[in-house]
């Protein structure tokens, strides 16, 4: 006999068993948005692109599709140029900045982040492999407004066939998401990985925009295709699981190996 549970889902009765969700009325549309300080995205996606300065076509394409940009100088979350000891950004360039923190957390890292915070920047700190660094820069030092769990390159550790992302990445996302006081952003390489990262506990994902789209003649079409695919995947997953928003996916869904 299948164990069923009933949930009050904003005036819609949801019957959940271990295989599917059914509704006795049309369910409300799930909230797919993501907010980081004064930045708001319609879908929980940050698109990272490599460029010496912000590209107006890319910025417009992402804005039109509800996506936050990152990477280029002039994007919504810029990557500071220069050494970790001295960034080209000063107090006059206040805004959201990406910063890569390495394990163990060095005195140079702490000094650079501290100075950027004093200059009025909001730091989105990347921690490739260390939950300890994530907790240090968010909970203890109060330097990070968000944590990025990376890296963007494929890892070589054993994979879970049913998730596509490595065992280490799933565990790291879960550990950081449940122990830090700030939003967690996980790197992802496909619409499917976006869903898996959010189920693991991430608040949003960071996608490197390159590969087959890097030199496309129709940038707006490429960005829209990515956004539409992610939006539809997340919508279907939320409706299937009964999650009313993206954050609910981590409690309504599970990642399990075959």
CATH topology of the largest domain: TIM Barrel
Query: How far is the N terminus from the C terminus?
Result: 23 Å
Shape: globular
Q: Write out the strand line-up for the largest beta sheet, numbering strands in chain order.
A: 6-7-8-9-10-11-12-13
Into how many domains do the coordinates divide? 2
Structural class: alpha/beta
Q: Could you tell me the mean pLDDT?
A: 76
Sequence of secondary-structure elements: EEEEEEHEEEHEHEHEHEHH
DSSP helix count? 7
Concise overview:
The chain is α/β, with parallel strands linked by helices. It is 30% helix and 22% strand.
Textual characterization of the structure:
The protein is globular, with a radius of gyration of 19 Å. It is of the alpha/beta class and 258 residues long. Helix 1 runs parallel beside helix 6 and helix 5 (191-199) packs parallel to helix 6. It has an eight-stranded parallel barrel, surrounded by five helices. 39% of the residues are buried. The chain folds into two domains: 1-30, no CATH class; 31-252, TIM Barrel (Alpha-Beta Barrel), CATH 3.20.20.70. The chain is built from seven helices and 13 strands.
Write the layout of secondary structure elements.
Blueprint: E1 5-9, E2 12-16, E3 21-23, E4 34-36, E5 39-41, E6 45-48, H1 56-64, E7 68-71, E8 77-78, E9 96-100, H2 107-118, E10 122-127, H3 131-140, E11 144-149, H4 167-177, E12 184-188, H5 191-199, E13 204-208, H6 219-241, H7 249-252
Parallel strand pairs: 6-7, 6-13, 7-8, 8-9, 9-10, 10-11, 11-12, 12-13
Antiparallel strand pairs: 1-2, 2-3, 4-5
Helix pairs in contact: 1-6, 5-6
């Amino acid at each position: 006999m299948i164990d069923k549970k009933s949930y009050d889902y904003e005036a819609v009765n949801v019957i959940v068993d271990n295989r599917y969700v059914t509704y006795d009325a049309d369910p409300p549309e799930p909230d797919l948005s993501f907010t980081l300080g004064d930045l708001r995205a319609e879908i929980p996606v940050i698109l990272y692109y490599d460029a010496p300065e912000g590209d107006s076509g890319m910025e417009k394409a992402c804005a039109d599709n509800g996506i936050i940009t990152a990477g280029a100088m002039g994007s919504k979350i810029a990557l500071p140029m220069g050494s970790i000891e001295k960034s080209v950004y000063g107090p006059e360039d206040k805004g959201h900045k990406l910063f890569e923190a390495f394990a163990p957390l060095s005195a140079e890292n702490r000094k650079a982040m501290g100075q950027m915070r004093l200059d009025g920047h909001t730091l989105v700190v990347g921690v490739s492999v260390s939950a300890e660094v994530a907790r240090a820069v968010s909970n203890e030092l109060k330097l990070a407004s968000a944590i990025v769990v990376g890296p963007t390159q494929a890892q070589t550790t054993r994979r879970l066939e049913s998730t596509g992302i490595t065992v280490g990445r799933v565990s790291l996302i879960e550990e950081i998401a449940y122990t830090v006081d700030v939003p967690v952003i996980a790197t992802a390489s496909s619409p499917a990985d976006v869903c898996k990262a959010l189920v693991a506990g991430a608040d949003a994902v960071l996608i490197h925009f390159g590969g087959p789209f890097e030199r496309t003649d129709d940038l707006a079409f490429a960005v829209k295709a990515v956004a539409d695919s992610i939006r539809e995947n997340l919508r279907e997953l939320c409706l299937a699981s009964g999650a009313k928003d993206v954050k609910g996916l981590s409690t309504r869904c599970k990642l399990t190996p075959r």
